[in-house]
Amino acid sequence: MTVEVKAESAQVVEEVVVSTQEEVVETEVEAKKVDEKNLKVVEKSSSFKEESNFLSDLKDHEKKALDQLKSKLEEAILGNNLFKKEVDLAKEEAPKPPIEGEVKEEPKTEEKSQEKTEEKVPDLCVEVDEDISLWGAPLLPSKGTESTNVVLLKFLRAREFKVNEAFEMLKKTLQWRKEMKIDSILDEDLGTDLALAAYMSGIDREGHPICYNIFGVLDNEELYKKTFGTEEKRGQFLRWRFQLMEKGIQKLDLKPGCVNSLLQVNDLKNSPGPSKKEVRVAIKQAVGVLQDNYPEFVARNIFINVPFWYYAFHALLSPFLTQRTKSKFVVVHPNKVTETLIQYIPIEEIPIQYGGLKRENDFEFSAEDGGVSELVIKAGSTAVFEIPAPQVGTTFIWDLSVLGWDVNYKEEFVPSDECSYTIIIQKGKKVGSNEGPIRNTFMTNEPGKIVLTVENSWSKKKKVFYRYKVKKSC
């Protein structure tokens, strides 16, 4: 579960409501009770588009900013000025105020000189690390690769190509990672209690790895207290989330033209409400940390099953979000979840609980079996899907799903021999709008065909997704 996206989810609701030209407008249109005929189909957001990382595609001012940042970074690394020194950290501690009337003894000149010499020792002893890297990309520009440019461009874009601000952001990120020992976080065992709260699964239509954040898991009182009960536990929770982000980054390829960001789906159904003070504390801690230390690693944030109280909660988070961050948000009404997700994610990659065909630990279908077929059924019409079964003793398996359902559905086996009887696999039934995808199997005892019938009696067209294969024998 990602605190970063949860925190941002509240603010995005306002942005979606205001931006009437965005694809997510349909959720607000429903809230305003506009006639459904005027609803637009959700499309890929025009508010944000990932930029190219090829140098030839950069604008002149962007190239200039990149060169300037690389120059500053080179100088800082070779001059050993990238991290705070031990002496600098000691100076940050506020000195005790002198007691009134107390005469402060001045140390002898010899002692002063000795102290100054001792203070300089840490600087002289620290070796310059020319092999310093970030997410596997070398940071010393003179030794850098294409991945170096990709990483530096993330910081520049996060700060609108303001070189000094991007450089300071990079320095703070490196300092934070050093202090928090983030480079070794993947080796830590942080438990499995939160495994269902957030996980990586599948890729979207553009190849981005998908991170699902299920906030409703935290509604469990025992888990909630275990996760947010104390400041130490909240810190452990954040560390677990940082680890998940690092795992996601491991799936990326930080090179120009490759996938170098994630897509996040945030399910807010049954999520802890605003009365949960501990969540608000964790959110405030996480928003700044994740946004400042993982710039441009999220291509899009999709929020589904958004509760109404989030529309009021957004004001608390406004100061923490950049306009660029908010432009990546999509907010989805509960009855539009599948319809929206399918615009960004292939239905075979969408989990079954969200109307997709992906089942946990399911090995029946794979990429080698081919994709999913789509068909639009016009209003008041019937679609018939035939699966040829010419061989005896063959077992077939199939998946079928209808967006929004509310159709009549049945399954039959029709023998090739006209003298044989039709076998009813699934007798006709009304499938409601809340039904999930249907999966079934059938073994043939004679040649024929499997017939799947979908009757759309509604005044609107319906989209059907289906796939089938011959099931392998054990």
List the SSEs and their pairings.
Layout: H1 3-18, H2 25-31, H3 60-78, H4 86-91, H5 109-125, E1 133-134, E2 137-138, H6 146-158, H7 163-180, E3 198-203, E4 209-214, H8 221-228, H9 231-250, E5 262-267, H10 277-293, E6 298-304, H11 310-313, H12 323-326, E7 329-331, H13 337-344, E8 373-377, E9 382-389, E10 395-402, E11 407-415, E12 423-431, E13 438-443, E14 448-455, E15 462-470
Parallel strand pairs: 4-5, 5-6, 6-7
Antiparallel strand pairs: 1-2, 3-4, 8-15, 9-14, 10-13, 10-15, 11-12, 11-14
Helix pairs in contact: 1-10, 3-6, 3-7, 6-7, 9-10
Give structural notes.
The protein has helices spanning 3-18, 25-31, 60-78, 86-91, 109-125, 146-158, 163-180, 221-228, 231-250, 277-293, 310-313, 323-326, 337-344, and strands at residues 133-134, 137-138, 198-203, 209-214, 262-267, 298-304, 329-331, 373-377, 382-389, 395-402, 407-415, 423-431, 438-443, 448-455, 462-470. By secondary structure, the protein is of the alpha+beta class. Strand 3 (198-203) and strand 4 (209-214) form a beta hairpin. The longest helix has 20 residues, at 231-250.
